[in-house]
Design a protein that fits this description.
The protein is mainly alpha-helical. The protein has a domain of about 80 residues. The protein has a two-stranded antiparallel sheet with strand order 1-2. It is globular, with a radius of gyration of 14 Å.
């Protein structure tokens, strides 16, 4: 394996909203990866919440719900973005979690990304 996964080949349905974040030249994906590198605790907390949900015997969950739980529970401190948890990143976190966490591989229902994105994403990004 060459160290890359195509997280955009996971099953999808319908269209997701399009938005723009970060410096004007950034795509949403570029802004997401910068935010993710600056805030690794966001990924860790989302994984913990999703695991707790699935451990209770519930097979599906919404990434939006997990974002709201993080906002409510901790007033999460993040850096590098005007928003504490930017909703534009939800679909990227869902795809990343499903790719990196085999136990959670089917937990989110995905929609096709409408924003420009790369065909593959390095797991170390």
């Amino acid at each position: 394996m060459d160290g890359q996964f195509d997280i955009f080949s996971l099953p999808v349905d319908e269209a997701a909203p399009v938005g723009h974040v970060g410096p004007r030249e950034d795509t949403i994906e570029e802004a997401f990866w910068r935010f993710h590198r600056q805030n690794p605790h966001v990924y860790a907390e989302l994984v913990k919440l999703a695991r707790r949900w699935k451990d209770r015997g519930i097979e599906r969950c919404g990434i939006g719900m997990l974002f709201e739980v993080l906002r409510w529970r901790s007033g999460l401190r993040t850096g590098g973005d005007d928003f504490k948890l930017n909703n534009n990143y939800r679909s990227y976190y869902a795809r990343l979690i499903m790719t990196r966490e085999p136990y959670l591989a089917d937990i989110f229902q995905l929609r096709e990304l409408q924003a420009p994105h790369s065909e593959s994403v390095r797991l170390t990004s």
